[in-house]
Amino acid sequence: MSINDSIQQMPQFRVLSDRQIEEVYLATLECLKRTGVEIRNATARELLAAAGARVDGARVRIPPPVIQDAVAAVPRSFTLWGRDGEHRLDIAPGCVYFGPGPTCTYFVDPETGERRPTRRGDPGLTALVCDALENIDYAMGLGLMSDVTPTLAPVYEFAEMVANTGKPVLPWAYSLQNVLDIYRIALAVAGREEVLRQRPFFALFATFQAPLVHTEEDLCNVLWAVEHGIPVVYLGGGTAGATAPVTGAGTLVISLAGALSGLAILQLQKRGAAVCLGAVPQAMDLRTARPAYGGPEMSLYSAAMADICRYLGVPFMGTAGASEAKVLDLQAAIESTVQVLLSALSRTALVHDVGFLDGADIGSLELLVMSDEVIAMVKRIMRGIEVNADTLMLDLIDQVGPGGEFMSARETARRCRAEIWHPTLWDREPWENWEAAGSLGMPDRIRARLREILATHTPPPLPRGVAEEIEAILMEAEAREK
Amino acid sequence: MSEILQKIAANLYEGEEDVVAALTQEALEQGFSPEEILADGLIFGMDRVGRDFKAGDLFVPEVLVAARAMQAGMDVLRPLLAESDVHSAGTYLIGTVAGDLHDIGKNLVRMMLEGAGFQVVDLGVDVKAETFVAAVKEHKPHILGMSALLTTTMPAMKTVIEALEQAGVRDKVKVMVGGAPVTAAYAEQIGADAYAPDAATAVEMARKLVE
Questions:
Q1: Where are the domains of chain A?
Q2: A400 and chain B in contact, CB less than 8 A
Q3: Any idea which fold B90-210 has?
Q4: What is the predicted ipTM?
Q5: Topology, domain B3-85
Q6: Do A412 and B15 touch (CB under 8 A)?
Q7: A407 and B61 in contact by Cβ < 8 A?
Q8: pLDDT per residue of chain B (211 residues) written in tens, 0 to 9
């Protein structure tokens, strides 16, 4: 969703004041200078050392100018394109886009409704459903395949996703070899390298660890990506009370320090590289030491991170549509809805993990379908209220007068579709009609919609011969792994 | 079908009342008979409105502006049509029952009925049983529709039906009831002929009752 504040005021929402943002940012700069980060990749350490960082083994202490320079260098916005050339995501201030998340161990079988290990075909189904849902803007796999050569799971996943959606795709990778395979597949789809550079239809999703660690594999992957013009989403963050201090402010420092040190590495490798920083600053339920993905802290801290990133001028990825619930129940609906609303209010550019149940363990297409409607509703809220002479309608009010009605006014017919949001899954029928239609509850309607999509939706086809090329790339990868 | 009648139907669908009136006049000047213009222009367009509304493709306000465009065309034709040719789906007497001042739902039903071509006599709100009976005698409607929003005013519907029986006119008119607390079971219990949970269904029911 994109909103132009000068035409229509977007609802206003902030978690942090300007002064609080400054304090967290300055504290983060101090943390990076004093404590530093552990960087398990030699190239990254060399880049930082050359820029003036103090390297002591794997520990790298980064002076503030290096970070500030990276913040100045990173583009305020970049664009992701769907391979169909129609879907365009402007990762820019004021825009909010939603999509699923990666690597769930289990998947809710869309046929039986049962939880089972994720397998081949599931990311493809996820991409297909993303393609069909109007308010889901990009695809991620929503599952980690259990039935393929384990080291190649991300490659199989990407191959399935690009075949099943025209929307942008966010793959992830275990290894540089994965990234190379993914890039070859993308090249097969795009045809030429220049096309891929000019209109990238995927961004590499990679993670840093909390507290304050960048792994060898992830750095290898993202360094290669920025060098080849692939936008990077670099996400991590602390869990309050476990991998970050128990306080919100401390969790923000850990999340921001990880993100900004990563940003510095990437901008040193390729100044001006398109990067979106991300955080999953959740809290831990310290009664049990279980994560609380759907807790209020996740949404609150994520919104605070969005505030900080907006202040810095860096695109931000947050989290929504994810619940600790085991099935699509009331808890799942409540947790995911609050997250969607707060993500939109805080203008988080990319919002991921829509469709997560049981923390990040179960991928649920049903939750994805339900969230599509929640997002639609929230988009209406975010569109705000247009106030001008036309919309105040004083002439019409005078014409209708006290005791009259506005329903049959021409202006009502002209504007009713645009002004008032109309649901496709919520029930607003009179009781009798609802009963006559089979007394269906929300879960029934969600399942019916999902079945309909799976039975009828056709994604834009891949160019001729590309499916065979992708198959050959996968077979080569298999041969290499043996 | 001729181009101008198609244009009348299309503009009616879009709720362009001035255009429909002008085109109707133009069609007359081109030599089309008022009956042709009515059947193949106005009613043809309104039927499409009805179908698309039922399918959920048109919204209530869009139906209402289309209905007004239909009326604009009818205003041109009416003086030229024989009384028997004037299209009316039926006469419908409507009001909220004694003690009930809530008329949003009732007004919506009235507008939708008018859109569907019914002649509606609206008695307004807080209508006493004897007023309903007198109006039935005077206007001889096909259908009497009553609404109530409150459980406390709902029993007044039964009073009206009893009053119609006592006056000997119950079998002269079909009775429809509606309103938030009213159910199909209650309608049956008080001896009404039909119940509709919403305005769109009310129009459908009314059409069935006059068939």
A1: 70-382, 389-419
A2: no
A3: Rossmann fold (3.40.50)
A4: 0.80
A5: 1.10.1240
A6: no
A7: yes
A8: 689 999 999 999 999 999 999 999 999 999 999 999 988 999 899 889 988 988 889 998 998 899 889 989 989 998 888 765 666 789 999 999 999 888 888 988 888 888 788 899 999 999 999 999 999 999 999 999 999 988 899 999 999 999 999 999 999 999 999 998 999 999 999 999 999 988 888 988 999 999 8
